[in-house]
Amino acid sequence: MRIGIDVRALSTASGRRGVGTYIRSLTAALAQEVRGTSDSIILFDNGSGDSLPQLDKVTRVKLMRPRRGITLWDQVAWPPTLAARRVDVFHSPFYAVPRVTPPRCRVVQTVHDLTPLKLPDAVSPRQRKLFRFNFQLARTAHRLIVPSEATRTDVISLLGVPSERIIVIPEAADITPADVVQADARIPQVLRRLRIGRAYLLHTGGHDAVKNLPRLLSAFTALIQQGRDLELVIAGEHGPGTSDVIQRASILGVLDRVRLPGFVPREDLIPLYRGALALVYPSRAEGFGLPVVEAMTCGLPVVASRAGPLPEVGGDACLYVDAASAAEMTQAVSKILDAGGLAADLARKGRARAAQFTWRETARRTLAVYREVAA
């Protein structure tokens, strides 16, 4: 079986977020799974694959056209490209599903979430149109992979895809026990560089409307008003929503205690998790919630919203709040800070919960999907 995977998203902003983690971790784990078999992997990129390590049984093909797949190019150029490489299964881990493929080629697409359809205010009108077009194209794939049962339900109800064509395969944190040990020694250095001078709460992800940062800032303000000497670190790439975050923090009078370091590379992100008091993740919608798993892997207590799959992912290892209630967020964080032993109990449960998610298992189950559709 010849497996083709589109990795162009690595060269976009998405490559520095959960989609990038998914592509890098899945391809590396798949390369391990196909060792000793007659299967092989072809990565289609536009230079974006340079961030991937050299892998056995993996060939790279550089495409000369669009960085990502929301273009007409994908409908025109994929069929001859896949035919020339004799691809048996083509996997799109982001978008870019071709409507037409060579007769022998089967298509698998990962749908990480349907947030633009569930929360249309979270994207621009142009983005809504593009997302809607590509989500409709997803219906033509032979199999859809989703990271959670909640997303599976969304795909059935919003796209009308038959349940038997949807496979739930959870994702995982790209953090090992050795990473955690090495990170601990770097905490002081990272905090100095990011100018974090107090005990802090952490949020990771973008600054877009989905992440519910105005309510997070309101909850943080209430904690400060209680007399707590804290900072709030909102890690994630700056974008159109960043100015709104700054303005809101300024209005609330907490701007001097809010840190916006922008994109934090993996080598600094793990120490940032390890040094925090808690991850506060009140997202309005998610497809999986990778930051929750990353935090649990690092032994960091988590306060998360009840939105979508977050309770499904966190199990009994997190405290859950209504995404619309800043007061509930304040109360949950206060419990972690004040209740003796609660933080340690959540950390212990979180590590055990996170250990259930591994990229090896994700790759094994993904490979099984490839073999099923290729049979």
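^ that was protein a. below is b, sequence first then the tokens
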Amino acid sequence: MGPYEYQFLLLAAISFVAGAIGSLMGLGGGIIIVPVMTLFFHIDFRLAAGASLIAIIATSSGAAVTYVRSHLSNIRVGMFLEILTTSGAISGALLAGRFADSLLFIAFSLILVYSLFPNGRKILEALRGREPDAATTVASDPGFLVKALKLDGRYYDESLGKEIVYGVRRVPLGAFVMYLAGLASGLLGIGSGAFKVLAMDSIMGMPVKSSTATSNMMIGVTAAASAGIYFLRGDIDPYIAAPVALGILAGSLAGTRIMPRISSLSLRIIFFAVIAVISIQMLLRGLGLA
């Protein structure tokens, strides 16, 4: 087996793991595979970002069907917020060629670090005996957009053995964060699921399982909005994109079978650990210390 075939198989295997973890957390896998390709395979950041965007589209297609069928995804919320993320993704893709790689690494790291704080707070709450998604949560004053678009939702939680009914709040603020998520997606070649989950979970009050499932549904559309620009710019290499897309698609399908059966606390802990490690690696690379 030659070096190119070995790299192909290794990229596909790592992408499988990234896809499974990304599907569990609504991140799309790009947030994991981009650092791996740049840090360990020494692939140019823009080529890694382009391959990641193609893989994210595959991930979303594979995972979204399962989550929509089980009602974990909130379709109304996803369709409304996708307007903002798509606009941001196009803006980010147009700006991507204007920044140095080191700046992109540092920006990537700061985005990840920011997403850790609300997640860490909810982990501490859960460890103290309060499971954030265990009780039904319906906002007393949901606001005009929530009422007009009927954004509230419900789903059956297999790990708790009960139906979760939840309300949605602070939609304008969540929509603004979604635009920033789209901007990050186009700029960095990720699904920006960390920002999407942050907006829906911590700002809009949706349960973490519904947030991650809805994020999985949205990331493919966001990635598609910026992937075309990367393709026209010549930043998508089929030899890199193919194994990454195949591996992440297979991993995401495996993740959809696991997610309904594990607790919200476990999801949050996995999310926190993965994002913390990657953010440190990317910051070191951006500062030239890796």
